[in-house]
Structure formats: C-alpha cells, structure tokens
Amino acid sequence: MPTVGSRTGTQRAMALGLLLIAGIVSLPVVAAFLDGESTVNLLVPVQLAAMATVGAVVGCLLPGIAGSGSSSTRSAGLGALVGVATALVGVVIFFLLLGG
Question: How far is CA 86 from CA 2, 19, 71, 74, 90, in A?
Fold first, then answer.
C-alpha cells in the first residue's frame, strides 16, 4: 500500500520531469511563434511567463510538489518557481547546443 510520503515523492518526480521537458522545449516553441526582427527581444520573457504558468498549473495538478498537506496556493507558487528554473535550464541547453 503506497504511503503519503511515497506518493508525494512520485508526484515531485513527475512534476520535475514534466517541467524539465517543457522547459527544454519551450524556447524553440516560443521562437517559432515570435519569429521576427521586432519580437526577438521578447523570446525569453515570453518563455519565462509561459513556463511560470505551466509550472503553476502542474503545481495545482500535482500538489505533492510542495509536500503533503500544503495548500494549493503554495503548490502553484512552487510549481511556478520550478517552471521558471527549468525554463532557464532550457535556455542554457539551447545556447550550448547553438554554440557547439
């Protein structure tokens, strides 16, 4: 029988994996939509805002990311922070791949 601790750990791992994949993919997706000379400076801010939103949604759907017994507000906030962090990881990976 799964315990609360193991369910929370599973939710954390799932949320982190989901957000990491979304963070890596988000910059090329945003770049595809904002493809133009006048919007080039908006790529990273739009990506960060999108990943904060995705992270908050993931935090609400998987409340174990903030620990058992946490409020949905705390879970959404922590999800947004993790979303922004994984977006920054995605930016670093993207620029490392571009730089060779």
Answer: 29, 6, 22, 18, 6
